[in-house]
């Protein structure tokens, strides 16, 4: 967990990843949506690129070449993490505003939820989960 938080644990980082999932991949649109300072956003984008969560892709804008930031496979792998965080917040935080983001299946539109699965594919109750530091053989 600590290694993962080295990459995504800084303030704004997961929100930047969320914006990429929502299709906002350009610096100006991410900054406008989040209201984050430009130097902070630059730092977060550089970190996410350095660790392979996002990749830079050049595009032309009014004669200038700029970069947009696209999710890599590693970045798309954070999707369940974002969903889990949103679900936790919806369940355990007092409602201040309606739920703004939820995950849906791109093929069917059905709502998606995060679940813990046993090796046989059956769903486990998260309240019975235990963390261990030893790895199974």
TrEMBL record:
Keywords: DNA-binding, Transcription, Transcription regulation. It comes from the Bacteria. GO terms for molecular function: DNA binding. Residues 1-97 form the HTH hxlR-type domain. InterPro entries: HTH_HxlR, WH-like_DNA-bd_sf, WH_DNA-bd_sf. Pfam families: HxlR (PF01638). This is Transcriptional regulator. It comes from Amnibacterium flavum. The lineage of its organism: Bacteria, Bacillati, Actinomycetota, Actinomycetes, Micrococcales.
């Amino acid at each position: 967990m600590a290694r993962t938080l080295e990459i995504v644990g800084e303030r704004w980082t997961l929100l930047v990843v969320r914006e990429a999932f929502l299709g906002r991949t350009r610096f100006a649109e991410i900054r406008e949506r989040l209201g984050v300072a430009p130097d902070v956003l630059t730092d977060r984008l550089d970190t996410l690129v350095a660790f392979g969560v996002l990749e830079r892709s050049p595009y032309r804008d009014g004669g200038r070449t700029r970069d947009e930031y696209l999710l890599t496979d590693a970045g798309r792998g954070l999707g369940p993490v974002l969903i889990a965080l949103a679900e936790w917040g919806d369940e355990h935080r007092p409602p201040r505003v309606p739920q703004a983001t939820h995950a849906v299946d791109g093929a069917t539109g059905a709502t998606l939820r995060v679940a813990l699965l046993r090796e046989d594919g059956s769903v486990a109750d998260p309240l019975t989960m235990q963390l261990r530091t030893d790895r199974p053989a």
